[in-house]
Amino acid sequence: MTESDEMKTIMDEVAACRRCVLHGARKRTVPGEGGDHARIMLIGEAPGYNEDVQGRPFVGRAGAFLDELLSSVGLKRNDVFITNILKCRPPGNRNPKSEEIKSCTPYLDRQIALLAPATICPMGNFAAGYILEKFGIKPAPIGSIHGKTFRIKSLIMDARIIPLYHPASAIYNPNMRNTLLEDFKNVAE
Ligand code: URA
Known about the structure:
Blueprint: H1 3-15, E1 33-34, E2 40-44, H2 49-54, H3 61-72, E3 80-84, H4 98-115, E4 119-122, H5 125-134, H6 142-145, E5 150-153, E6 158-161, H7 174-188
Parallel strand pairs: 2-3, 2-4, 4-6
Antiparallel strand pairs: 1-3, 5-6
Helix pairs in contact: 1-4
């Protein structure tokens, strides 16, 4: 099985998933998308209204800013892989519940193992908390760790984690916009 066959298998399983209550209200699942050989993986929290309708990650206002961040460092969507902690929209965009994170993240874990990205950027507190913990790093509030590089090196993995603020936090906040633009330079290096 090739890498992209395996990714397709994960996406098909997500499309049929009924592991948690979120399957009941979703229009579409949002498994993630990007280049087959992307070296950078961006991980958000969960699909919102637009993502649920289109089945694609970050296609609403936060997505427009994410596109701006990518182009600010000369990257295109296909140069990265974009996904979320949860693959289905929580009703009213409420926060993910811990049992939903537990049910859903095996899909994300498989995507990470398959792509083996050189750089993983969890965006926002939920994604940063999950990813840092997964790699044995003590989670901390995003305000104190955004833009920092955490190296993970083991027999099977050599990557860096750069937590970022969630792009939605910059929509009404010019300071946050600048911080994200600055932190994103680190990601592209
Ligand atoms: N916010 C997220 O965390 N993910 C999306 O896909 C869209 C908005």
